């Protein structure tokens, strides 16, 4: 019997994942999900809510910065870039969903991209590393939803 907590066990499993765990099917599906999310996010950059969060976020600056989609000349610290790009994705509400109701890629991809851009040039991720991070984020979200009694009750409330 392990004395490790559920959270510790969960973290150990996640930490142990590597790109060799990605099957060809997972890689192809992930690429499709990423392209879909980028397309929806780029469309979402034209929404009023995205314009508002972009303007608000201009007050933040940092030596470490990440791209704001649709704005080649505007960068923000990774936290705020992920927020603005996530708002762009969710503002259209066409991003992918699963049951119970959630939009997995729109929450994960903006954070993964913003963080990957913030790493020093000599520590850049490969495309396979990005796919692994994306899939770990999706897996974590799915597991947390599975553990949540609130998430299981969503269909009954609507």
From TrEMBL:
Residue ranges of domain MmgE/PrpD N-terminal in the record: 9-152
Recorded GO MF terms: aconitate decarboxylase activity
GO cellular component: mitochondrion
Name of this protein: IRG1 decarboxylase
SUPFAM superfamilies according to UniProt: 2-methylcitrate dehydratase PrpD
One of the GO biological process terms: defense response
Similarity field: Belongs to the PrpD family.
């Amino acid at each position: 019997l392990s004395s490790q907590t559920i959270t510790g066990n969960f973290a150990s499993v996640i930490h142990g994942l590597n790109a060799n765990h990605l099957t060809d099917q997972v890689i192809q599906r992930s690429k499709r999900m990423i392209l879909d999310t980028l397309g929806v996010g780029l469309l979402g950059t034209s929404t009023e809510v995205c314009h508002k969060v972009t303007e608000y976020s201009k007050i933040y600056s940092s030596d470490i910065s990440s791209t704001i989609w649709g704005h080649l000349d505007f960068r923000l610290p990774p936290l705020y870039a992920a927020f603005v790009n996530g708002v762009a994705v969710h503002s259209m509400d066409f991003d992918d969903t699963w049951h119970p109701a959630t939009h997995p890629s729109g929450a994960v991809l903006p954070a993964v991209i913003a963080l990957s851009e913030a790493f020093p040039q000599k520590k850049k991720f490969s495309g396979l590393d990005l796919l692994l991070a994306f899939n770990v984020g999706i897996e974590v979200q799915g597991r947390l939803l599975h553990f949540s009694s609130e998430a299981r009750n969503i269909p009954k409330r609507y």
